[in-house]
């Protein structure tokens, strides 16, 4: 009888939620609560659904049929695949389906981030705190739009790059495959290419420069090249990249969109970012563990982007959270030494 009891005790209790599951549930519940007022509080959501309905009728659009002043002009839909998915949800379950899907994607994104921070390594409570802080940084952009998928893909891309840097895992080769999907879902695939580019730079600057270092440098270079080629697998080819380049750097559209303004630290929505920046400074100053150059390249690059545009804050937060998780190793002894606690 005792042997049977021991066997039962050794089995995993599959029906009890893990901390990762709790993070997922918290984010989903909060997002659904916001769904009553916030997730659909953007005219872009209905625009994406309309484009998606047209995609089901005639495929990805190449001509502008939506505006009066530019009707008939060439047009690129950078989120056509996600638009089609949103339209399908709308047809099946109306706006409720769109809201629930957005909440689930947010839950998956921050669940993935929590598990990433936990592997940094950080203890469970601190990993959960950093994850929820990152969620707070991005909550102003919790809108039912394709960029929510980009947030999740950003977490996956950075994790796979970090794991390759740490232990040369083969998951890094999933990045080009992800880029094929990402380049058809949202124009923020450029953020994923930036993560891989920063990883290559960070690896180049890392030491020691031995055989393992050379293999990692070559790996990142090959993945970056393959990822760039992968993003050409879309209905528009290189025209998509030209369109995004014009949108970001020469069209003047950014000056008209609030999401591209710099954060206003007088506003409440910037408070989580302020906390994240102050926490970064404190941990860099007092922590026993020195930040490695690979993580530093990513942290500096994405803090820079976040200070330039509100739209980049959510991305910067998911990069900063695992980096700060690394810096908290042996933090209590360091605080004791610094402040005599």
Q: Count of DSSP E strands?
A: 0
* Overall average residue pLDDT: 90
Number of helices: 14
Shape: globular
Q: How helix-rich are the residues, as a percent range?
A: 55-70%
Low-confidence stretches: 1-9
Radius of gyration: 22 Å
Q: Structural class from helices and strands?
A: mainly alpha
Secondary structure topology:
Blueprint lengths: L1 H9 L8 H17 L7 H16 L21 H39 L5 H15 L8 H21 L6 H12 L3 H17 L5 H20 L7 H12 L21 H16 L6 H16 L4 H15 L3 H9 L2
Account of the protein in words:
The chain has 341 residues and is mostly helical. Helices cover 69% and strands 0% of the residues. The protein is built from 14 helices and no strands. It has helices at 2-10, 19-35, 43-58, 80-118, 124-138, 147-167, 174-185, 189-205, 211-230, 238-249, 271-286, 293-308, 313-327, 331-339. Helix 2 runs antiparallel to helix 4 (80-118), helix 4 runs antiparallel to helix 5 and helix 6 (147-167) runs antiparallel to helix 7 (174-185). It is globular and about 70 Å long.
């Amino acid at each position: 009888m005792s042997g049977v009891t021991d066997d039962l005790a050794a089995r995993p209790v599959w029906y009890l939620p893990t901390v990762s599951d709790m993070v997922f549930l918290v984010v989903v519940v909060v997002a659904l609560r916001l769904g009553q007022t916030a997730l659909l509080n953007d005219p872009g959501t209905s625009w994406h659904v309309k484009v998606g309905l047209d995609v089901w009728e005639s495929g990805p659009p190449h001509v502008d049929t939506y505006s009066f002043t530019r009707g008939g002009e060439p047009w690129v839909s950078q989120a056509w695949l996600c638009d089609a998915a949103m339209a399908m949800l709308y047809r099946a379950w109306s706006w409720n389906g769109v809201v629930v899907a957005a909440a689930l994607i947010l839950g998956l994104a921050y669940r993935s981030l929590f598990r990433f921070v936990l592997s940094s390594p950080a203890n469970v409570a601190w990993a959960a705190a950093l994850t929820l802080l990152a969620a707070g940084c991005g909550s102003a952009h919790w809108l039912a739009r394709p960029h929510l998928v980009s947030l999740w893909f950003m977490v996956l891309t950075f994790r796979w790059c970090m794991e390759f840097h740490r232990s040369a895992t083969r998951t890094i080769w999933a990045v080009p495959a992800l880029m094929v999907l990402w380049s058809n879902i949202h124009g923020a695939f450029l953020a994923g290419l930036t993560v891989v580019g920063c990883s290559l730079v960070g690896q180049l600057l890392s030491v020691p420069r031995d055989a393992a270092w050379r293999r990692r440098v070559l790996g990142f270079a090959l993945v970056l090249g393959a990822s760039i080629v992968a993003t050409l697998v879309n209905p528009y080819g290189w025209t998509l990249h030209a369109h995004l380049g014009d949108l970001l750097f020469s069209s003047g559209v950014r000056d008209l969109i609030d999401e591209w303004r710099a954060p206003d630290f007088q506003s409440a929505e910037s408070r989580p970012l302020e906390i994240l920046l102050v926490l970064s400074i404190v941990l860099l100053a007092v922590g026993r563990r020195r930040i490695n150059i690979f993580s530093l390249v990513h942290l500096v690059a994405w803090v820079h982007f976040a200070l330039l545009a509100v739209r980049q804050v959510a991305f910067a937060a998911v990069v900063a959270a695992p980096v700060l998780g690394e810096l908290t190793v042996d933090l209590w002894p360091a605080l004791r030494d610094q402040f005599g606690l």
